[in-house]
């Protein structure tokens, strides 16, 4: 199973990311490159309205990787979705995701149905 997937939908102007496991530096670097390409391409097509990050199988990451997520998000803030729902498996993951998310317009959930319902409110 791959450590991540990134999909965009131009019709709904949405982004769906799945993240799994514990990442090393090469995995993060590959993700960062793919992520930046996806959000910038979507921005050129009208921008992203929503993003769903499914981290139910994503481990708590090292401090270095977590800090790099924060920098990645900050550097791409102009290209990111108006609303992001992140689904995490546990409280410690939530704390790490909140720290990395910074000023991101996000909420954090442990239930994917609640996350998608919250995103759907913006689609209406």
The average pLDDT score comes to: 90
Tally of DSSP helical segments: 4
Q: What distance lies between the first and last C-alpha atoms, to the nearest angstrom?
A: 34 Å
Tell me how many strands there are. Answer: 5
Give the SSE map:
Elements: E1 4-9, E2 14-21, H1 25-44, E3 50-58, H2 63-75, E4 83-87, H3 91-101, E5 106-109, H4 112-123
Parallel strand pairs: 2-3, 3-4, 4-5
Antiparallel strand pairs: 1-2
Structure description:
The protein is α/β, with parallel strands linked by helices. The protein is built from 4 helices and 5 strands. The protein has helices at residues 25-44, 63-75, 91-101, 112-123; strands at 4-9, 14-21, 50-58, 83-87, 106-109. The protein has a 5-stranded mixed beta sheet with strand order 1-2-3-4-5, with helices on both faces. Strand 2, helix 1 (25-44) and strand 3 (50-58) form a beta-alpha-beta unit. Helix 1 (25-44) runs parallel beside helix 2 and helix 2 crosses helix 3 (91-101). The longest helix has 20 residues, at 25-44. The radius of gyration is 13 Å and the shape is globular. The model has no long low-confidence stretch (mean pLDDT 90).
């Amino acid at each position: 199973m791959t450590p991540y997937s990134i999909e965009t939908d131009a019709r709904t102007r949405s982004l769906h990311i799945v993240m799994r496991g514990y990442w090393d530096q090469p995995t993060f670097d590959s993700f960062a490159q793919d992520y930046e390409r996806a959000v910038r391409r979507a921005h050129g097509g009208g921008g992203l309205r929503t993003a769903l990050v499914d981290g139910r199988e994503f481990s708590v990451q090292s401090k270095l990787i977590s800090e790099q997520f924060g920098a990645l998000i900050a550097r791409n803030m102009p290209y990111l979705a108006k609303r992001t729902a992140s689904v995490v498996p546990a409280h410690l993951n939530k704390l790490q995701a909140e720290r990395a998310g910074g000023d991101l317009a996000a909420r954090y959930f442990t239930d994917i149905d609640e996350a998608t319902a919250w995103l759907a409110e913006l689609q209406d």
